[in-house]
Specification:
single chain, about 35% helix
């Protein structure tokens, strides 16, 4: 019988110790993301048989489980998840099944799962050096944006510290007001709540961030955290769009300040938003990380 507990800040060390050494670069496994969005997904975790197990609610009436992270008897631990799901009256849904994870699952339980995916939730993963250097013809337009900003404004890149956080919150409030007329205002409210939790618990969540200041005013900020030993996740990026080129600048500056041990930068999904998709594609990801949902074929008809 698995014993799950709600994810809390105090669980950071045990959760990251399970994920950090491995090769999972899925943004959903960032501890900061798990904790900052737990109010939406009611996320819980357990550690059993050498695996980190995470369950959550994908909608009001559908419980989901993230793909188990760890090493050991995968068949056994999937059975534990299925027992837990059945005890709650739910089918077994396993989310975050990357191509590597899919191969593991098929080797262990061949033909027992059906898989679906939605490209809106694929992760955009870049080489850190590409984002920092913006070298070559394919990044010419990005370099132009950065150079235009530098010619027009005298700016300073500053790390996010406790005295900078209120200034970032002020920019976020202005950004929310400017965008609250959009159709997905509920989604923006959830994002704002998650962001404010993260900013209020910045160090506890293991976050690192940077901001662009022009004449003492914060005009852009971003933050993120390590996902694993070689992948850094960028969770939030906000800017005042009146400053032409500011998004390109904050992106490059932050990538330049991410420790060199991180080979990859995961800038998360585009959520099917056309403008966001174009922006993420324009940085030429090294990996478009496919994430499948797996469900046992024997229960597929009842889902």
């Amino acid at each position: 019988m698995l014993s799950f507990k709600p994810i809390d800040i105090e669980d950071r060390n045990i959760i990251t110790s399970c994920i950090y050494p491995g090769n999972c670069m899925n943004c959903d496994f960032s501890f900061a993301n798990m904790c900052s969005w737990r109010f939406v997904y009611k996320s819980e975790f357990a550690v059993s048989d050498g695996f980190l197990l995470i369950r959550f609610f994908a909608g009001e009436k559908r419980r989901g489980y993230m793909y188990p992270v760890g090493s050991g008897d995968l068949r056994h631990v999937v059975g534990l998840l299925e027992d837990d799901a059945r005890a709650g009256g739910y089918p077994l849904w396993i989310f975050g099944v990357t191509p590597d994870a899919k191969r593991e699952l098929e080797n262990c339980l061949p033909g027992e799962f059906a898989y679906t995916f939605d490209p809106d939730y694929f992760d955009y993963v870049y080489l850190r050096t590409d984002l920092a250097a913006l070298s070559g013809k394919k990044y010419q337009s990005k370099r132009n944006h950065v150079n235009r900003f530098k010619k027009q404004y005298r700016y300073e890149y500053i790390p996010i510290t406790s005295d900078v956080i209120p200034l970032c919150m002020n920019l976020e409030s202005k950004w929310f007001q400017a965008n609250s007329a959009k159709d997905d205002v509920d989604g923006l409210r959830l994002e704002s709540r998650s962001m404010r939790f993260a900013l209020n618990h910045f160090d506890e969540l293991g976050l690192t961030g940077g901001a662009i200041a022009v004449d003492g005013e914060i005009v852009a900020f971003t933050y993120g955290s390590p996902i694993n030993h070689c992948t850094f996740g960028v969770h939030v990026e906000k800017a005042n769009i009146r400053y032409d080129g500011v998004f390109s600048l904050i992106n490059q500056e932050f990538a330049s300040h991410i420790p060199e041990q991180f080979i990859f930068v995961n800038r998360e999904e585009d959520l099917g938003i056309p403008g966001l998709r174009r922006a993420k594609q324009s940085y030429h990801p090294a990996i478009l990380l496919e994430k499948n949902t797996a469900v046992r074929k024997t229960q597929f008809d009842s889902v």
